[in-house]
Amino acid sequence: ETGVTQTPRHLVMGMTNKKSLKCEQHLGHNAMYWYKQSAKKPLELMFVYNFKEQTENNSVPSRFSPECPNSSHLFLHLHTLQPEDSALYLCASSQEYSSGGYTGELFFGEGSRLTVL
Amino acid sequence: GEDVEQSLFLSVREGDSSVINCTYTDSSSTYLYWYKQEPGAGLQLLTYIFSNMDMKQDQRLTVLLNKKDKHLSLRIADTQTGDSAIYFCAESGGKLIFGQGTELSVKP
Questions:
Q1: Tell me: the pLDDT tens digits for A77-104?
Q2: Which of A40, A56, A102 sits opposite B92 (nearest CB)?
């Protein structure tokens, strides 16, 4: 199995829908991340979970709701999204998270391409 | 806040050297990274450099760090078509901050 798996790979939703993105890592890591990738913009850190506890919330609108039931799984629940939320959402994991120093290598999934109509 | 800047595009011919540049603002950065994203894939760590180093070489890759100017570069020698990808610079002083990515196009 690949290290970090994201599903679905593609998602099209209306502004009133509710959907979820799923991420699973098989690397035994303790930290998991959600990033947003939009064309020509820096990769945006959204959320970080370290040992299942949320350690970073980068001023993300409440229409994005993360959930980390255990160290191997991470979800991003989506509701009432806007067209500008269309982007590639990347999940990543690392051994653990350190906000002030070396976090170590991040292992990324292939991303979930989200289109909001 | 912290900021990482990269040019968006670079085009080179196969066999030439590629140099991808990056500037960052956080002087407390302890590590600086280069990640590669191939089409349809996530990011993959290429190399990293500790902030007390000026240079790191790894086969065809050379990373140069100028701490005074907060400038990081990635040189790829003998660039191949398989090197076509988006290259992201990232710095970690506090949070891990990525740039916009530089799309490298290698023409035969």
A1: 999 999 999 999 999 999 988 766 557 7
A2: A102
